[in-house]
Amino acid sequence: MKVEEKFGALRYVNAESGGPPLMVFITIIPLLAAGFYILKQQHWIWMLAGAAIMTAGNAIPLELNSTAVTNASELILLISLWATKFYLDQKRRGVEV
């Protein structure tokens, strides 16, 4: 581990950083699986779409001096998770969505 300053904040990063962020992919695999399951069972694509956008946002290396793209993909994932929960709750209550 080494200390790095980015945008005025100190953080610890892997000294031998290479390749895509492993923890993101460990987290996203169950979300993609759940997204496929919900798509198949409920015909709701948005959880899968949010997880796919999050995966693409973290997997594609961009030479930008900002983490805004990664943060935007995380925001899209959060919105898709919220929308999926809302949708499934409405269906459970018998409300037409």
Keywords:
mainly alpha; 63% helix; membrane; transmembrane helix; transmembrane; 97 residues
Q: How does this model look, in words?
A:
The protein has one domain. Helices cover 63% and strands 10% of the residues. The protein is built from 3 helices and 2 strands. It has helices at 22-42, 46-59, 68-93, and strands at residues 2-6, 9-13. Strands 1-2 form a two-stranded antiparallel ribbon. A hairpin with a 2-residue loop joins β1 (2-6) and β2. The chain is elongated, with a radius of gyration of 17 Å.
Summarize the structure.
This protein is mainly α and 97 residues long.
Class by SSE composition: mainly alpha
Q: Could you state the order of secondary-structure elements as H and E?
A: EEHHH
Largest sheet properties: 2 strands, antiparallel
SS summary, helix count: 3
Strand segment count:
2
Number of domains: 1
Provide mean pLDDT, rounded: 87
Task: Produce the secondary structure layout.
Elements: E1 2-6, E2 9-13, H1 22-42, H2 46-59, H3 68-93
Antiparallel strand pairs: 1-2
Helix pairs in contact: 1-2, 2-3
